[in-house]
Amino acid sequence: MNALEIAARVRSGERSAVSVTEEALTAIAARNGELNVFVHVEGESALERAAAVDAAVAAGRDPGILAGVPVGLKDNLCQTGVPTTCGSRILSGWRPPYTATAVERLLAAGAVPVGKTNMDEFAMGSSTETSAYGPTRNPLNPTRVPGGSSGGSAAAVAAGMVPVALGSDTGGSIRQPAALCGLVGIKPTYGLVSRYGLVAFASSLDQIGPLARSVADAAASLEAIAGHDPRDSTSLPGPAPALIAHLDQGVAGRRIGIVRELVEGADPEVVAAVAGAAEVLAAAGATLSEVSIPELRLGLSAYYLIAPAEASSNLARYDGVRFGLRVAGSDITEMYVATRTAGFGAEVKRRIMLGTYALSAGYYDAYYGQALKVRTVMIEAFERAYASADLLLGATAPSEAFALGAKVSDPMAMYLSDVFTIPTNLSGHAAISVPFGSGASGLPLGVQLLGPARSEERLVAAAAVVEAGRGVPGA
Amino acid sequence: MSELTRDDVAKVARLARLHLTEEELDRFTGQLAQVLDHANDLRALDLTGVAPTAHPVDLGTVVRADEVRPGLVRDAFLSAAPQPEDGRFAVPRILGEEP
Question: What DSSP line would sit under A410-439, residue for residue?
C-alpha cells in the first residue's frame, strides 16, 4: 500500500497505525536476512509511536499527512538514542543525542520510523557494497546491487517493507538507487531540506530527500520535511513548496530539453526509455527539443575533486576522541592513526587521501581551485539552458542494476555510475528520477527530470505525467 | 599521466592520519592516479578570470539573536564518547614523558 493510502485510512480510523507498523516489521523480518536492508530495526519505539498516532485519531486530533506511515531512515540521519553508523565501523555503537530536523518533521507529520537502512560507508559509493555491515541486495534480483549510496532505503521500499524512506544525495545517491530499484527519488534544491542531523559527507553537495513507489508519496514526504530551519545556516528561507497541490498540474505548454550529455554512453534500453518518456511528455502537451550542454561532461572530474576535498575535511572529526570507535595508541597521534586505520574502509580512505592531495600545497590551484571554477562554468551553462527550457530530461543511470561485485575493484567504473546525476549536485538545483522502461534483463530503469533551483512543483507535476504514461504501449 | 607517486600517497596518508600497508600503498597509488588522470581534462582548461564556486547558495553570514536558550546537554555527548572522564574527553598523554 502507498503512503498516502495508509495515512488516509489511519486518519479516518479505518486502519490502526499499530497494525500497519506490525505489518512493516513482519515484512522486514521476512527478508532482511537475505537482503541486508536494515542495519538496525527500531521495533519497540515504532510500535509506541504508532500507538500514539492511534490515540490521537481516537481523540479526534489529526496526526498529520503521513499518519501511521512506516518509514526507513538512511543510517546517516540522526534520531535521538538510535544507533547511527553511516555504514562505518568508526561510528559503531554511537547513539546520537539529538534528532535531525528532517526526521523531526516526519515525526511531526505522523510518520513512524522503523529503523536505519544500510548505506555505502559515509555515503561514498554507488552500490551499497562499501558498507562495513555487508552489501545490500536488490530485492528485484538479489544477485544485483540496489545502487547506492542510499541502497538500503531503496531496497526497503522496493521490497515492500516501508512505503517511503529517506536518503541523502551528494552525487546521485537518492536518484541512482531509485532508478535501479524501480522507485521515485528526489534530490531537492540545495538548502530546501535542513541538513541538521545529517552526518556530513560533502557539505556543499549533500541534500536529504525521499524514495517512494509513487510520485505522490515522494512529493508528500518532501513537502513534510522541507522548509527553512534556523539550525542549518545553509537552509533556504521560506516554507516548504506546495507539492501535493501541484501533482496534477500537467506539462501543457512546458518547454522540456532532452540533454544529449545526459543520455550519451548509456545502454540502448536507457536511451530508448528517455525517448519514450519524451513522447509521453509531448503527448501531454509539452514542447520537447534536443539540447546540448557540453560543460556537463566536466562534472564527473570536478565532483571527484570537490567531494573528496570536502570529505577529507569533514571526516577529520573521526579521531577516536568524541564518538564511536577508539583504538589504543601509546600517544595521541598513534591513537588517531590506529583508530582511523581500523575504523575506515578502503573507499573512505581513498577519498580522504584524494581530497587531502587535492587540497595540499602545490596542488590546490591545479585541482581543487580549478574544480571550483568548473563548478561556476557548469552553473552558468545550466542557467543558459534554463533560459529556453522549463525543465530538462535525461537518463538517471547509464545502465540497469549491475551484478554484486562487478565494480568493487575498479573505483573509476563505479564513479561513472553517477555521471548523469552529479551535475545537479554541483549546481545545487533539483532533480527527480522516475521509473520508465526496463533494461536488457528486465530490471527497471529510471529517467531523470531536472529543473532550476526551487522548481520542485514543476518537477513533480512532470514526473506524475511520466509515471502515468509508463504503461502506454511502446513505452 | 598523473605525476602522483607512491611517496606522495605515503605523505598524504600521514597527513590524513592513516596507516597504509605496502600492498595498500601500491594499490591506492594506481587507483588515485587513475582518478587524477581523469581530472586532467580540467587542468587543461583555461579558466582565467572565472570566479570559483565553493558553495551553490550564497546566503551570506547567517546570525541569530544573541539570546540565552537551552542547548544540547553536555552529559549526553560525553556519554556517547569512547572515554569520558570528569566531564571531559580523556585522551592519551599529549605532552612530555610519563611523570
Answer: -HHHHHGGGTTTHHHHHHT-EEEEEEEEE-
β-pairing, A112-117 with A70-74? Answer: parallel
Give the pLDDT mean for A449-461: 98
Interchain contact, A331 vs B94, CB within 8 Å: yes
| pLDDT tens digits, one per residue of A235-265 | 999 999 999 999 999 999 999 999 999 999 9
Each residue's pLDDT tens digit, A17-72 = 999 999 999 999 999 999 999 999 999 999 999 999 999 999 999 999 999 999 99
- Indicate the residue of A301, A320, A340 with minimum beta-carbon distance to B42: A301
- Domain-embedded: residue A8: yes
Q: Which 3 state secondary structure label does DSSP give A149? A: coil
* Residue A448: inside a domain: no
The architecture of the domain spanning B6-43 is Orthogonal Bundle (1.10)
CATH number for the domain that contains residue A229: 3.90.1300.10
Mutate to test the interface with B, among A91, A95, A301, A317 (most CBs of B within 10 A): A301
Pick from A92, A14, A89, A102: which is nearest to A54 by CA?
Answer: A14
